[in-house]
Amino acid sequence: MSAAAGFERLEFRDPLRARALVSALERAVERAGRPIAIMHVCGSHEQAVARFGLRSVLPDALDLIAGPGCPVCVTDAREIDECVALADRGVRIATYGDMLRVPGSSRSLADAKAAGASVEVVYAIDQAIELARRDAGELVFFATGFETTAVATAAALLSGVPPNFSVLAAHKYIPPVMEIVAEMPERRVEGFLAAGHAATITGSGIFEPFVARHRMPVVVAGFEPLDILAALVKLVTLVAEGRPEVANMFPRCVTREGNVRAQELLFRALRPVGGHYRGIAHVPNGNLRLRDELARFDARRRFDVDATRLPRDPRPARADRCRCGDIMAGTARPTDCQLFGTACSIGSPVGACMVSTEGTCRIWMTYGVGGGP
Amino acid sequence: MCLGVPGKVVAIDGMEATVDFWGVRRRVRLDVVDEEVSVGDYVLNHVGYAIRRIPEQEVAATLELYEELLRAASSDPMAEDVLSEIGAGAKERSEP
């Protein structure tokens, strides 16, 4: 579909500005004189890109890749296994909704729940704390997500929780995984779009060391179509001009310093440790775990979790063909997976990328392949 | 989980605010937000914590984006995220 026809179908709030931004983007890509691949690392960005059909108006020489931006999807199978092992032991589990159907290497939490385990969905950690207060039994909150969600876990732990409450932390920290993805030999990425609301907390300055090390630009973007287009123009311009810089194209929400109070809470409760991301790799400092001062609320230490004795998934052949890991790393698209839209669908997902509302497969399935009209 | 959701503060009790999200009222913690929040302010809520006070001049434009989102079909992933963020199913939602 041509860009012009794309515009007819897309409902930009300000079509004139959208056209001007796309023209600017075309000029910037021309100036570079080569195909450019850039990556975003936020499920909400992929949602916006796909739902507004932005890829249909991008220049052909610009490849906008969805990276490891779905926190549910990058949660490692072993972390799911740990939680399933706890649930099997009769410990009550509370977690965010999308986590239920995410496959572990044995079973999902939904499978454990169907077999009689107590697994409750909450939309906030404070709800889980309420559940713990209501009943004296042990309750474990399975805490997943990036910085924005980790801040909530940290603040809740620091404000005081009941003695029967503990946290199984599987939080991920985005800057370290950008380092890994930037160095992947399979796909040469020349710049990153960073997520606006996460940067509200961390500040745009958090990307400065990355930019210095990898000599590639990072642009912080909002979630409206025009925000994303404007950020793409900035990012491609920086790439074309060979300027490795951090640019903040979401200044109405993000400052260089970010929310200092939130950062202080985050790192008072949690510390970065190395750990696995589903399908990507071991990421040094890529996970956030409870600090020693909060060890008494760390479910791993309270329960001596052992997930090694869980039976393996009896459907390995199907799960082995799932490309979720490659899709999270940005080295494959959903359409490269032979299960996409056939054996794996929204109603019957095989991999985490089809389970989560922030998963690239689920998003592409909802809006049509690649997104847009 | 990247997308925060804006709501209007209707009451404050210490570190806890009652916030109205399109007719759904939820308790939101104020531990994390780095500005003073008063009744009538709009805050950006993220999993039960306000991460930012929305400046008055930005409230209208911010709400407009989300209102457009919430008019979408129930199968829309972005709308679904917004609804699960405020802990509300589509049925619970009332008009703003």
pLDDT under 50 segments of chain A (min length 5)?
Answer: none
Strand content of chain A: 15-25%
| Percent range of helical residues of chain A | 40-55%
SSE sequence of chain B, one letter per element:
EEEEEHH
Could you estimate the helical fraction of the residues of chain B in percent? 25-40%
Q: List the total number of helices of chain B.
A: 2
Low-confidence stretches of chain B: 89-96
Would you mind describing this structure in some detail?
The complex is a heterodimer of chains A (373) and B (96). Chain A is globular and about 65 Å long. In chain A, helix 8 links the parallel strand 5 and strand 6. Chain A is α/β, with parallel strands linked by helices and 373 residues long. The longest helix of chain A has 18 residues. Chain A starts with a helix and ends in a 6-residue tail after the last helix. Chain A has 18 helices and eleven strands. A six-stranded mixed β-sheet of chain A has the order 4-3-5-6-11-10, sandwiched between helices. With 96 residues, chain B is α+β, with helices and mostly antiparallel strands. Helix content of chain B is 25%, strand content 33%. Chain B is built from two helices and five strands. Chain B has a five-stranded antiparallel β-sheet. In chain B, strand 4 and strand 5 form a beta hairpin. The radius of gyration of chain B is 13 Å and the shape is globular. The C terminus of chain B is likely disordered. Chains A and B meet through helix 3, helix 7, helix 8, helix 10 and helix 13 of A and strand 5, helix 1 and helix 2 of B.
